[in-house]
């Protein structure tokens, strides 16, 4: 007989609960800037990489175009990014940061980091947890969908 793994012992449930807490954490931390978490990580990606195509942003963030398009429209409407057709390939839309996004970058980094210190994790603990979560992600990506069907 199979011994069931109880709900509170399920890794997936722990990650699910932590993800909900992260959503709440970032909603509070980013409310001052009227940004959602997906908008924030889009800005993080652009701050890190510079101008990118919409496709590259989607690949970097693991977001599909159905999620990314409305998110970018809102960021553009709110003055964080600009989108324009590529001069090299007119089928490609490039995304660039605006002066507003560049000007507020360090302030947002500092604000979110100061909120994160309230979590009470030192750098070593933070890195260890992140490495463990990255390992779980890697292992899940290695499982093919066919392996899950019977």
The radius of gyration computed from the alpha-carbon positions, rounded to a whole number of angstroms, is 19 Å
Largest sheet: 3 strands, antiparallel
Percent helix among the residues?
Answer: 55-70%
Number of strands: 3
Total tally of structural domains: 1
**What is the strand content?**
5-15%
Order of helices and strands: HHEHHEEHH
Number of helices: 6
**Could you tell me the mean pLDDT?**
93
The gross shape turns out to be globular
The strand line-up of the biggest sheet is: 1-3-2
- CATH-derived architecture: Orthogonal Bundle
Distance between the termini: 19 Å
Query: What's the CATH H-level homologous superfamily?
Result: Winged helix-like DNA-binding domain superfamily/Winged helix DNA-binding domain
CATH topology grouping: Arc Repressor Mutant, subunit A
CATH uppermost class: Mainly Alpha
Low-pLDDT windows of residues: none
Protein name: HTH-type transcriptional regulator SarZ
GO molecular function: DNA binding; DNA-binding transcription factor activity
Subcellular location: Cytoplasm
Keywords: Cytoplasm, DNA-binding, Transcription, Transcription regulation
């Amino acid at each position: 007989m199979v011994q069931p793994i109880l709900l509170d012992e399920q890794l997936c449930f722990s990650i699910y609960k932590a993800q909900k807490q992260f959503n709440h954490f970032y909603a509070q931390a980013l409310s001052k800037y009227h940004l959602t978490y997906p908008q924030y990580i889009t800005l993080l990606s652009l701050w890190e990489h510079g101008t990118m195509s919409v496709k590259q942003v989607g690949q970097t963030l693991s977001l599909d175009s159905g999620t990314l398009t409305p998110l970018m429209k809102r960021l553009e409407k709110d003055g964080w990014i600009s989108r324009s057709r590529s001069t090299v390939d007119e089928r490609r839309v490039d995304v660039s940061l605006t002066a507003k996004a560049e000007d507020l970058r360090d302030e947002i980094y500092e604000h979110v980091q100061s909120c994160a210190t309230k979590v009470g994790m030192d750098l070593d603990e933070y890195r260890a947890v992140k490495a463990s979560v990255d390992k779980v992600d890697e292992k899940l990506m290695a499982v093919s969908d066919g392996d899950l069907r019977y």
